[in-house]
Amino acid sequence: MSLIRAVYDPFNDFDRYFDDAFLSRFTGGNANFNREVTARQPFRPKLDIKDGTDNTVAATFELPGLKKEDVNIQLHNNLLTVSGQTNASVEREEGGYAVRERSFGSFERSLRVPEGVKDEDIKANMQDGLLTITFPKVSAEQAPKRITVA
C-alpha cells in the first residue's frame, strides 16, 4: 500500500468559521453582510481522494460553473497541481432593486503522486462541475516483481 499526501490547509476552514461566528454577532445576524464577506473570500475547490480497488487513486475536485477550458492540470516533481480561473456573475431583482453579484479569481490545489508516475498515466475527466483525475498507486517500474530461486 502506498501513501498519498494531499496538501490540506486547516486554517482555511478555521478562518471561515471564525469570521462567520464573529461577523454574525457584530452585524446582528445580517445574512446579506455575511454573504458579501463570503463572496470576497478566495475560491478553494473541495477535494475528495478515493483509493480504488484496481490499483488506482481517484481525486475528485468540485469546480461548479467551470468548463474544462478554464482548468489547468500540471505534473511537476511528483506534484499534481490543478489551477484555473473562476468568473461567476449572478443578476436578479430583489425588492425593486437590481442585484448583481460577481465572483472572480484564481485557484490552485496540489497533491503528491507516487514516484515514477508519468503524465501519460494520469487521466482527467470533467463532467457536471466535477473534475476527476485518476492515476496509478505505483508506477510499472515500482510494482513488485517476483524473483524465482534457481
TrEMBL record:
The entry's keywords: Stress response
Protein species of origin: Coniophora puteana (strain RWD-64-598) (Brown rot fungus)
Keyword set includes DNA damage: no
Pfam entry (one): HSP20
Stretches assigned to the SHSP domain: 38-150
Family indicated by similarity: Belongs to the small heat shock protein (HSP20) family.
SUPFAM superfamilies hit by this protein: HSP20-like chaperones
Cross-referenced CDD domains: ACD_sHsps-like (cd06464)
Superkingdom: Eukaryota
Protein name listed in UniProt: Small heat shock protein
UniProt entry tagged with the keyword tRNA processing: no
InterPro entries per UniProt: A-crystallin/Hsp20_dom, HSP20-like_chaperone, Small_HSP
Taxonomy of the source species: Eukaryota, Fungi, Dikarya, Basidiomycota, Agaricomycotina
